[in-house]
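Researcher: Let's try something more involved. This one mixes different molecule types, so please make sure each is placed in the same coordinate frame as the others.
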Amino acid sequence: MIGLIVLAIFITLIILAVLIIENDDLPHSVILFMGFGLGSVILYFIFSAPDVALTEAVIGTGISGVVFLVTLLQIRSKEIKR
Amino acid sequence: MLDSFNQTQFLHSVITIGSLLIFAIGLVGVLIKKNLFKIFLSFAIIESSLFIYFIGMHFEVEKVAPMLTDKVTKFSTNMTDPVPQAMILTTIVIGIAVLALALSFIINYFKLTNNMRVDDMNELGDEK
Amino acid sequence: MNLKKEIRVSTLFISLIVSIMTILLLPIFLDFNLASNSLGDSLLNINEIETNSANGVTSVVTYFRGFDTLGEVTILFLSIFGIGLGLDGYRDKLNIFAYENRLLKSSVDILFPLIILFGFYIIIHGHLSPGGGFQGGVIIASAFLLMFLAKGDEFSLNHKIISITEALSGAGFILIGILGVLLVDRFLGNFLPLGTIKELFSGGVIPLIYIFVGIKVSAEITALVEYFIRIKDVR
Amino acid sequence: MSLLYFVILPLLASFLTPFFRNYLRYISLAVNLMLLALSFSFLGSLPIRESISFDSPLSIAFVLDSASLFFIVLFLSIMTLFSIYAIRDKSRKDIFILTNMLLASVSGLVLSGDIFNIYIFFEIASISAYILTSLQKDKEAYSGAIRYMIMGAVASIFLLIGIMTIYLNLGTLNLVTIGEKFSTIDNQIKSLTLISLFIGFGIKAEIFPLNFWVVDIYQASTNRVNALFSSVLSKAYIFLFFHIAYILGVNIKILSFLAILGIISFGVSEISALSSKNLKRVFAYSTLGQIGVLFIALSSSSIVATTGAIFLIALHAITKLMLFLSLDILEDRFSSVNIDIFKKFNSLFLISIFAIGFLSLLGVPPFGGFIAKLTILEGLITKSEYILVGAILVISLIEAVYLFKLLGMSREAGEKSSLDIPILKRGVLSIMALSIIYLGIFPELFLQICKSVALALVGVDNV
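Model: All components are placed in one shared frame. Result:
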């Protein structure tokens, strides 16, 4: 079973990666990137690496998603007021 | 037939092909996208693909996490290698530090020039 | 129209080159045979005798390769310092991350101490269960992030306290290392009793190091978030 | 005494900055001098291996042999001179946090005997460099910093790939063990690892074709930062590049490939320098050219040429520090770095500093550069690499054209304004100029030191 689960997650990740790159809407691709992070968290958990999974969940997905989104907010606020 | 899906060999091939594909997608993103934000997003994807590959290759079916729990009471070689996990843990934190710095530079640059495109960054050059 | 076509051609060309590269690299990567006797296996073998920590990854991160962790904390420090240099002009300004919601506002008072407590739990149990200084530190920082989200401009941090916390915890990490040099002649060496495995007070210096790392990371990530969410009031 | 103090003390000074923000520069200077004294105390007992937290092959080890000691002393003395030069500036307190970090990271890069630890120090050095580039906070600075970060991200990704393939195939991170086992792995994987490491370190060591971005970075940052980049950072990466190359036991084919890259690097950058109107860019191109010469000499696998290369590294570090700091004085006065400012000032002191620097770069006797280039050419001739010798001589002529053009401009008639140089800066600049002349006239002792360094670097006496 484990092989098929990993295969499915990888296919999802590849589709997500293409969508992140090809999306013209930046906030949209950040949300997709957080989804990508979630997929890799599941993969780390399957690969018996709970420490890495936890780190990726809080740092790689959580904080980096927030930082990306806030960057967009900063840029957006400048654009509106220009 | 279903058994062959659970072999370590199959798992490793999936991991290799999958993470190489994600790496290639990220690389294409870095090369063709002109938006600075997208470029750093693509770098984050590339790094993720490396991490997944490195952790995945050190996993074999039936191996458990390098940790003592109620079921596992002794450290043995039937555990995944802790060194790559420690390395990736370190690298993830480094990745977010570099990413945050890059994004702060992008914010500052954008506030000064209203420009986010990498091929319009023409402040530097011999004539200037 | 013409320009658009040109861009497509270059995109296609780059994709083609990258896919050729991928196909060429694939057999090399598929061919990998892993090293049979790796560093990690030898570390696992001696882990029980040398560190008495129940989490193998934690003992590698903080003890066997503790110096890497010091470098990593340094990188976070440097990066926050650089962000502060650039975004400093926007301090004490509007919080753009705020979200007006009464439910959020009233629930955050209950959630805030709970999340901080959870973060400390993760930090302190780093040598017993998954988690540790980095993860717990970021969880604590996320409690502050929640405050920024809910309270808006009513909530702000004292930067003096944050920078002093950061400085002291970083210095504490280095001090443990120097104590190691003085007492057991090795930087970051273990100079504390090991205790019994799977108990809270075990693992020698490992919990101590992770506590310092946790405090430092929580202060740093909180500062990072605060720098990012402030913006110059243009109105 | 522990080797760790070379890394720890600058780090501690940076961490504790909130408590003594106003005295940081004095503390940094004190740290530099203390470490300089410490490094001389190790002289008698080389080589030293010190493992951190646990026994050596299982954890991280620091190695101090005569090569790394030489580089540590070089970096420390340059940092000391730089601190003295900048100590009176009230406005730039922050630069000392970054220079301390830079010092800690280059010491770590030189000392570390563990490849993942090297990656960590690589990142610390890169991040300090990014922040140093952005210090001016204008759009040029941010544009340069963003470019630098893109290149740095590429470099760290490739370095990570190299480290991963090494760990996957050899199961170790210790440099000595890697060196012993590296020849056993498969040829294809070997070349993959070597290419990744070449791209990773080559971007930072600024070798052709991975150096197209460097000049922009120099243009974006201030002259003081450029002085540090040119005399500390690039030297550390060159040491690292060849240290790793010799440990991995690269064969003669790869070495001759590196020599060809060096000659192209030298030629292209000196020709580009001819047409440049911006002094920062001219000096940056000259740095790239010297890096090309270093690549030629270090990959010749001749001890004599390597000795010359070590000599040139030390000398070029001093020369470029001197030139960039003099340019800093000029830019403060005229707030421009166009080559026209050479016509505008009237100061015999500064003109002679520039003349000494330029002549030493060219390799004219009696300055130190002459001895360095002579030794390199001697080594190449004994290996009968006559093409390389000819190429170096021809390209040096191109170098002479633009350097003499600059010197000639300072003698042109026109409106001249006098310069007021503080006595401290005057002192620092003259120390550097005198040491260049001293090394040119009495090179024997220093050549001997360089020879032992070259032996340790190539790995004849111990690895």
